[in-house]
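tool_call predict_complex ligand=acetyl coenzyme *A
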Amino acid sequence: MTDIRVGVAADAERFLRTDTVVWFQEELSAPVETQLLGVPADQRFAAELDAPTDPTTYPGIYGVYPLELAVPGDRLVPCAGLTWVGVHPDHRRRGVLSAMLRHHFEQVRDTPGTAVSALHASEPAIYGRYGYGLASLELPITLSRGTTLTAPGLDEAAGAITTQLVSVRDAGTPERMHACHRAVADMGSVVGAASYYERLCLSVPEWLRDKEPWRVLFARRDGRDVGFAMLRRDQKWEDARPSGSMDVPLLVGDPATRLALVRRLVDFDLVSSVRLRTGYAEDPVLTWVGGPRSTSTVSTYDCLWIRLVDLPAALAARAWSAPCDVVVEVVDTYAPWNAGRWRIRADASGAATAERTDADADLLLPVEALGAAYVGGGNLVGRVRAGLVTEARPGAAAELWRAMRTDVAPAASMMF
Ligand SMILES: CC(=O)SCCNC(=O)CCNC(=O)[C@H](O)C(C)(C)COP(=O)(O)OP(=O)(O)OC[C@H]1O[C@@H](n2cnc3c(N)ncnc32)[C@H](O)[C@@H]1OP(=O)(O)O
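tool_result ok
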């Protein structure tokens, strides 16, 4: 078999061209570095083969956005945001992705301070084999114009919010978005680096065509930004009646701020439906409107996939919900340094350690089960019942799960 070598992609144009072939996209007029904004040059990687290949593209590419993940305990921890993954159609199904992911895990392992990798999957069947667990769900919610949102306990705080609509092209918009997001990241969501918000605010002509530029509705309290909704409207008329739609990929703020923002979003002139791509399993929006049948539609998709790359460091980085003392036997093919037996102990203060042990295992689990449970979304008892985790000591899965679960389900993470 041909050898596959993975390293930094020195040729940015070749990297971009590979992406264009993989995703069968039109070529954009924006400069190469503009299109790659947010992926630092030393975080663009490529696979090369020993055999001769097309010199204008790479056989495979991937990139990493430097992110922060909001974990239990109200903390932001560094997280490698795996993205731009693509294998040239001529080289698929020969192990290029597998080689790139082995490389990615070694890179993350060797990056001080970063213990987890996360992604959004193009197809859900790809990443479980590499140790990523499905950590949260996304429930896009569509609301009709004028939907009533009932939240008596938040009315006063929401009433103190004013809103301001700006364009992504207005000076300072990415910086304001970044500052708001870092200040109020919901548990389970990710926050980008400053350059990621510049990327969100790019106005590439081919992405716009007949569409309005993205806009940002900032929420302000006492003269300060406290949240925002990113939005775009699409004009439409049916039988001479306005039936425009609005797309909202990002909604940030504490509950009262989100209430004020959503109330404003369902009260835009000429817009008859608002699609919040930010919904999640325990999203208060679903409660405020009176349940799923009070929406126009609500659907369910996989959202963030999380992979523990440095298992003991990752487990120690979050707060734990209850004490536990459980020995787990971890199966990990792609990051073999995690494989084997670990004693996981959490105390009443919420601190936890994972240490190597020779003691008998209480639980046998694939590393993706810990990734799925990392922000409190993937029920370990449910996995035992589903035959995906094996319990040697009855009650061990419940003990570990009670320590890892969280009071509310993880929020949906923004797309990256
Ligand atoms: C985080 C992100 O960026 S998500 C974006 C992912 N990229 C895409 O979807 C772009 C289009 N697809 C591609 O570029 C490629 O098909 C990739 C990247 C998904 C897979 O690359 P390949 O080099 O073909 O994968 P590789 O040969 O290493 O396959 C490894 C295993 O995954 C399986 N696999 C690969 N792709 C898929 C898929 N789409 N669905 C199910 N299984 C898959 C292979 O069958 C193989 O299984 P095996 O180990 O049991 O034999």
